[in-house]
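Below is a filled-in request sheet from our internal design queue. Each sheet records the structural input a requester submitted and the sequence that came back. We keep these sheets so that new team members can see what a complete request looks like end to end.

REQUESTER: design group, bay 2
PRIORITY: normal
MODE: inverse folding
CHAIN LENGTH: 170
BACKBONE (tokenized):
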């Protein structure tokens, strides 16, 4: 059975809006992951700095006597272990990767939103718009190998309800 032109336009429209929703979800997901990793890195840096022997915390009088010395010893040991482990965690590399993914998905989502807005205004999907959208999809396909191989289900679930399905304004 041959589809008429209205069905073809509906399919194209669905493809664009579904793609836009996916782009928005990816942008938000990688933004959330980037924020998490930055927070982990900051906490790690604070723990390492606070356990360093030259930090101001080492000079607190309570830490110089009795159980304070034990506490200081434990804090210093933790700081040493964390400073040794930090390069192996590769947080800086992961932060850089997530920052790139967030930026790429943000740009792609903005471009797709622009295409969707033009469709809403003109009530038509030109070949040029469809080609532009297909280029966005191709670029996103190239990014898929750089992201999480198994996105965190808890984050995806929390974000899925927040990403509304874009629709055509009536």
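RETURNED SEQUENCE:
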């Amino acid at each position: 059975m041959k589809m008429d032109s209205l069905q073809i336009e509906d399919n194209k429209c669905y493809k664009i809006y579904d793609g836009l929703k996916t782009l928005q979800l990816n942008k938000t997901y990688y933004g959330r992951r980037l924020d998490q990793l930055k927070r982990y890195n900051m906490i790690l840096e604070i723990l390492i700095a606070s356990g360093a022997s030259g930090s101001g915390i080492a000079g607190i009088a309570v830490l110089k006597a009795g159980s304070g010395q034990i506490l200081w010893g434990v804090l210093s040991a933790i700081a040493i272990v964390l400073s040794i482990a930090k390069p192996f965690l590769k947080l800086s590399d992961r932060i850089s990767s997530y920052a790139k993914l967030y930026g790429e998905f943000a740009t792609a989502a903005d471009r797709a939103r622009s295409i969707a807005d033009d469709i809403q205004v003109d009530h038509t999907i030109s070949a040029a718009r469809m080609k532009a959208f297909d280029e966005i999809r191709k670029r996103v396909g190239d990014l898929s190998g750089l992201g999480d191989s198994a996105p965190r289900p808890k984050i995806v679930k929390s974000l899925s309800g927040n990403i509304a399905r874009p629709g055509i304004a009536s």
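SHEET NOTES:
- The CA atoms of residues 108 and 136 lie 6 Å apart.
- Helices lie at 5-51, 67-89, 91-122, 127-143, 153-160.
FILED BY: M.R.
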